[in-house]
Here is the input.
Amino acid sequence: MVESGSIFIAGRTSSTDLPLTASAFDTTIAGQFEGFLAGISSDGSALEYLSYIGGASNDFVNDMKADTTSGRVYLCGEASRVGFPLTSDAIFSESFGRPSFVSAFDTESLNLLHSTLFPCSSAVIAVNLSPVANGQVWISGTIQIGGGNSDNK
Here is the structure.
């Protein structure tokens, strides 16, 4: 359980010995890099939650936003094609190329609420996200096609 007012931190790591908490969503690092989500007490004195998030290969969390209005923590980034944690309401549950992901966790329990992939034949890189209204989120990023980049929002 994470206290109200907690500080959230997310990113990627290659560390295999993070001090994961008992309620960790994912306890193993599968690739060279894995995404992670951490919750720290509002005064910075205690680690309340720490978990990896990822699939069978390298996964990168590129952005994280906490939305106190909806009670969600959103993550976006690059996902492995195999084994990335998805929910039953995923927009895309299968992928090819190098997909991006968007996941939402409950800010109190840190249960995974929603998680989906965004497939592309080359690579889709979700770089930024911004919660708007009613639990919706805007995502921006880059599509890599044939070695070049095309910024899209």
